[in-house]
């Protein structure tokens, strides 16, 4: 999905939910979407500060919190970074494949895995409040470059 299509999708998503997709939130999403891997908050702040002198950490963290709440961005827990979500209408039970060499991140939606985990947690009387499934490894391109 192109950045333009992603931003248009985000605008429509926010409009349907009746929430404001402000210029700063839009720009934060755009900067994250321009990165093939995860983008850390302070890297995001550095990029944003070149355009908006008033950009400060709370500005970035508030925008990130909004984007996460709306399902437009995912936090990569293991990297403390953020990646754009290309399917915000999904239920947001997801898994991330993270390449340890190039940093590329792919989002999966294997609902059967999530259902099995939720079922087992329920059987054990455990209430899941947040779930993060991240698989770290090598993408196909990096594996092929190692074989050369």
TrEMBL record:
GO biological process: what's one of them?
A: regulation of secondary metabolite biosynthetic process
Q: What is this protein called?
A: Ferric uptake regulation protein
What are the names of the required cofactors? Zn(2+)
**Listed GO cellular component terms?**
cytosol
Q: What does the record note about the cofactor?
A: Binds 1 zinc ion per subunit.
Protein's cellular compartments = Cytoplasm
Q: Does the keyword Zinc apply?
A: yes
Q: What is its main location?
A: cytoplasm
Annotated Zn(2+) binding sites: 99, 102, 139, 142
Write one Gene Ontology MF term.
zinc ion binding
Which keywords has UniProt assigned to this entry?
Answer: Cytoplasm, DNA-binding, Iron, Metal-binding, Repressor, Transcription, Transcription regulation, Zinc
Which protein family is named in the record?
Answer: Belongs to the Fur family.
Recorded source organism is Halomonas binhaiensis
The signal peptide stretch is: none
What does the annotation say about its assembly with partners? Answer: Homodimer.
Q: Which Gene3D superfamilies match?
A: 3.30.1490.190, Winged helix-like DNA-binding domain superfamily/Winged helix DNA-binding domain
């Amino acid at each position: 999905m192109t950045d333009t299509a992603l931003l248009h999708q985000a605008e429509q998503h926010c409009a349907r939910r009746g929430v404001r997709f402000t210029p700063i939130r839009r720009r934060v999403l755009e900067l994250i979407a321009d990165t093939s891997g995860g983008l850390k908050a302070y890297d995001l702040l550095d990029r944003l500060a070149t355009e908006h002198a008033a950009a400060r950490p709370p500005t970035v963290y508030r925008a990130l919190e909004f984007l996460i709440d709306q399902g437009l961005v995912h936090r990569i827990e293991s990297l403390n970074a953020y990646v754009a979500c290309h399917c915000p209408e999904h239920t947001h039970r997801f898994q991330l494949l993270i390449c340890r060499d190039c940093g590329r991140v792919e989002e999966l939606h294997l609902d059967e895995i999530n259902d099995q985990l939720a079922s087992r947690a329920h059987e054990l009387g455990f209430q899941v409040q947040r779930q993060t499934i991240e698989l770290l490894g090598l993408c196909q391109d990096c594996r092929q470059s190692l074989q050369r």
